[in-house]
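assembly run, all chains below
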Amino acid sequence: MKKLFLLAAVSFFTIVSFAQSEKYIASMKANIAAIDTSFKNPANLLDLANKFERIATAEKTQWLAFYYAALCQVNYTYMEQDKSKIDAIADKATELIDKADALQPNNSEISCLKSMIASAHMMVNPMQRFMEYGQEAQTFIDAAMQQDPTNPRPEYLKGQGLKFTPEQFGGGCATAKPILQSSLDKYNKFKSASDIHPNWGKQRVEMLIGECK
Amino acid sequence: MKGAFTLLILLLGFTTGAQVKVDGKITDTKGKPVGGVSITLKDTYDGATTDSLGNFSFLTTEKGKNILEASVIGYKPFQQEIDLGSAPVTLNISMKELVTELKAVVISAGSFVASDKNKGAVLSALDIVTTPSANADVTSAFKSLPGTQQVGESEGLFVRGGSATESKIYMDGNLVNNFFYSSTPGIATRGRFNPFLFKGTIFSSGGYSALYGQALSSALILESKDLPEKTQADLGISVVGVGGGIQHLSKDKKSSWGISYNYSNLLLGFAINKQKQDFYQIPVYHQGDANFRIKTKSGGIIKYYGYISANKTGFRSADIDSTVLKNAFAIENLNTYQNINWRENFGTGWKITTGISYSTNLDDINNELQDANNQKKVITNPSFYAFKNFKLKNRAQYAQARVVLDKKLNGLNVIRFGADYFYSDEKSTYTLYDGTKFTESVTDNLQSVFAEADVFITNSLAAKIGGRVEHSQVVNKWNVAPRVSVAYKFADNSQASFAYGLFYQNPERKYLPTVASLDYSRAAHYILQYQKISSERTFRVEAFYKEYTDLYKTSTSPTGREAATNNNGFGHATGLELFFRDKKTFKNVDYWVSYSFLDTRRDFLNYPKAITPSFAANHTAALVVKKFVTKWKTGFNLSYNFATGRPYYYFAYDNVQNTYVIGDAGKTINYNSMSFSVNYLPKLGKTNAKSFIVWVLGINNVLGQEQVFNYNYNNNGSRKEAVTPPSKRFMFIGCFISFGIDRTQDAINNNL
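ok done. output:
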């Protein structure tokens, strides 16, 4: 009986911790699935960012939760109409991604996100900030490519940036398309490490390539 | 076995449990709802985000004592313990807004910030070099802002009824003497320093901070760049000379060094732009500089800047007192400037900024009366002719040490204090026509201590309160200068500011030494400002009143030297100024307009009574328009400056009353000048280009409008001659190349 009780107690804890990780995976999946639709309404994106942050803070050791919280925050800056608010939101994203970085150093996806944050800062005043933040965004893209050459997202970000840079400044479809195409090739080969690892951007790349025909 | 499973199920049941609802509303301290707040039950997944009405609601299975957290950008995080049972919990939470740089009011009365970083900047660093009327001269761009005069006959900033000597220029906190090339009669000289040295500039047309002193009217505060972005080499060639330099950034991006050399020779420039003076010595300038910058471990920086320049010029113009004689003026100048600066954070909110500077200046002036064959002519009768032949040697050295400590308190509140020591030693030798030498020297030790506090009461109300105490050996008295400014932000993000301050200044070197016992001259500033800044538009209106007391009066000694005699001068200035910048209304066009109204009178120097000084126009206006056409890789810049006529006077000496009287007076014609510049960037967009090229074409006074700055009178006031610019137009063509780096990004940065 004593033995049984011990067994029961052990299985209880394993079940609880199993349930806990089930809960983590399930919550992450549900929230990740909601990202795509949330772009229609910035408030939903912020809500999602907060959800991921709650998971991250409760779990403490899951870099992905911090990563997605930061991703939602940075996407939120792209939707924010009031440019004066962007820096603070981007800083919030930095705070989150730094925590992810501490848990998972030298990660290509994290570098991509840092590049996106730099771009967000730049968009506040492209004229005055290109030198500083444009450079920073590029540095992180380069790092991301180096950290994982199979990751399609660094080239997606690079191609997207070029596509929206005027031709006269060395941007436009002509320069962007080969890079986007290379990104798409990588998307086609890309296998996400799990259901909850980053696996976004393919549709957007296809759309950008489509616009360049 | 069965019992164990029951226990297990029971335990599991306990962990899943029944759900309980938590809801509520979040408001700020004024009762307004706060949206986007993240509500979290600490260490759980449970929580919600408030909607735009501040409402939130969520279900949780947690039981017992839990901590509820609320957080959102810009507010102080909130925590509360809640006891979760079976009954729903409703919470009304009030969150306190944080005072943040983003939201806080900017203390801006009297100052214009040109920077790419500062909030509330009205100009960018690049505006200084792309304003066509400025000719890439650091101070000239500020002549397109309200508060400044369009004075073309001499250098310097004439601000709000003040003379150029009432405006002082500081580099990284240290006063820069001889900021401009040495004066030449009737021709304004340029600033010595390259505008690309600076990342930020604050131009204060009044009410400036207690950190600075010895300027009755205005302070121009220049902040040098930190580390360069990249290693690069530059080469420039233009109608006025050639130059080149290199900036090297270390691999670890922790330190950099740079050197540059420029040679200017106006032979070609004067061939294209005919000068009315006869230049027998074409202006020639050699100028070299060096710098290094080192980032320290704790995020501080050490910066050194050194400069040396040697230059000479000489020109003849008609002598006003005769029809055949000429006046020949020649000057040789050697100037050095060294500045080393250290900025460091010590943690716990302490910051130190300290610097030492040392500079020297040598002027050798030779003035001659010449006949039709350009031969020296000495005439002693009438006696005033004798004084037209003279030599003047000026030897000066200046040293400064300065330390400022900053302590950051909660929020944006800062206390700042420090001390400043300034040493100057100026010696001049004046040689008369007959070889008689007069040597004079003035040494001063000026000590100052100052303190200032930035007090942010809320995001909408802030004050800067400071004071400065100075002691100068020349005056041998203490002065105490309080400075206060208050700013209030309205709900629509516009803001109103008020500034008050007392400002003291020593007598000008050229009126020293004197036997008289002098006090400091003094100005009191009262400034009221309203401004509204959005990302695309800036509107500002400022009214001021300035009261001058204890201005220096001068009298002429038997040797013909004008010396300060007492502090009986006085004056006032009142004005209203407008500034509007708009990047929105016309697509890809950026323009600003400024207007200044000024009413001023003063009695100082040898003025017979209180009159409007010859450097003050009642109405001044400027328009600057910039457009970059990406397709043509070309930027077009236009500026138009206008000012109503300025008064001019002839002071006659009344030998009976032993005083000056106004012998003649008038007003010059209105001043109009349109300048235009084109920047062509052929390599723009060529990725991986090895060099980047900028072609510049600039024309000052394109329309060739007649400009009269002032009038010179002959000795008895019977004849006057207009002081006009040396050439009707000035055309400049130049080509500037940067090597080694793709500067496309820079161009995008500058012109997107």
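The CA atoms of residues 156 and 183 of chain A lie 6 Å apart.

Chain A has two domains: 38-148, 150-213.

not gonna interpret more than that til we talk
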